[in-house]
Write a structure and sequence with these properties.
Elements lengths: L7 H17 L4 H36 L1
Organism: bioreactor metagenome
GO cellular component, one term: exodeoxyribonuclease VII complex
Keywords: Coiled coil, Cytoplasm, Hydrolase, Nuclease
Length: about 60
């Protein structure tokens, strides 16, 4: 899935699936490496999205006051 088409909810769901797969122990070492790398990308995406949303909300609140 392209990052530009990814939503926060989709990223969160994919992260939850990765965590479940890791916790279940069903991943081999190669797959584990890829999943951890993808989780890192998803975490960065979510963090960026939350920061942007926070900034937009703050701007709206500042305009109201």
């Amino acid at each position: 899935m392209k990052e530009s088409a990814l939503t926060y909810s989709q990223a969160k769901q994919e992260l939850e699936e990765i965590v479940s797969a890791i916790e279940s122990g069903e991943l081999d070492v190669d797959a584990l490496t890829e999943k951890v790398k993808r989780a890192s990308e998803l975490i960065a995406f979510c963090k960026e999205r939350l920061t942007k949303t926070d900034e937009e909300l703050q701007k709206i609140l500042d305009e109201i006051n």
